[in-house]
What we know:
alpha+beta
Amino acid sequence: MFRPLALCIGLRYTRAKRRNHFISFISLISMLGIALGVAALITVLSVMNGFEQELRTRILGMASHASVSGVEAPLTHWQVAARIAREDPQVVGVAPYVRGEVMLTHGRKVSGALVRGILPALEPQVSTVGEHMRQGRLSDLEPGGYGIILGSELAWNLGVRVGDTVTVITPQATFSPAGVLPRLRRFRVRGIFEVGMYEYDRGVALVHLEDAARLFRLGDGVTGIRLKLDDLFQAPRVARELARRLGGDYRVEDWTRQHANFFRAVQTEKRVMFIILTLIVAVAAFNIVSTLVMVVTDKRADIAILKTLGATPGVILRIFMVQGTLIGALGVLLGIVGGVALALNVETIVPWIEHTFHVQFMPADVYYISDLPSKLNWPDVWRIGGVAFALSLLATLYPAWRASRTQPAEALRYE
């Protein structure tokens, strides 16, 4: 803890108008550098947190928190697995699905797609696709009606609208007297969805579960069931428990395994960005070293007089630590205020810049997300502020120690 004498003199040196304006300028630059680094670090981490949350929401809005499928064959009694899954209090939604890869054609246009058979009444329990319908509704898919709902980018690529027909070609072949023929079926477009994630908008088509089962010759079976949990972070535990209860004839997976590499990459990027931007803060913080070295040189006579009056080296050291710490603390405070304000308004500022300068930072056909989300985590803010302040405090030690080693006789020799 600083003694009152060291604190008072240190604050007086900070407030006093220096004869050397260059020192004041360097102090201001050090303070602004720390503020800029802290603000940048808070903003970047908030944007990366926003990306992670948005990606997780969009991926799990179309995928599932957990899924149960057969090991080598379709599930023929999926209702039994669904009943067992519902017994877990964490499970809030269960829906069957059929999944298969196909080719879609319309006129001369061809595109690959992933067809997912769903039950329109149960699908809202496990996904949010029904909330992102641009045209039509999930209930427009009727058994035997052979209707299909396409992602917006897929529909645009095929050049189809609601009411048009597309031909679905499956990898399975039909043997006939004329030879081996591909299996195909004409579907009528009943709707178009847009979840805002290019991977799904470009490559997913929805049909009724019964139509998909007929298309892929599954009979009464399904590919599996999808589960939605009350807490998605409990998915690994729920999946392990469900696998134990169902036995070895079922394969149970959760979203942390299905997308593990993707989210691990996001976490790695966050750590790397934190380290890189912390180096920027460190450079600004260590400008305090040069500031205090010049201050110590400028105040050599004052230090000598204080020592002759009885000030100990510890008092002198704390005087200059107060000065450097105050510069760092003000920079950190300004950086936190600026970073928080910027992080909370990124979603407003970026669209304004794009509109004003006619630029697009994140094209939808290149990035998963075309806007710039932001999520401010206060623990990140306090961690960044603490690291920046610790670096500022560390930068004061050497100049303050040099000041405490000043010899009065040498300092006053030419005064």
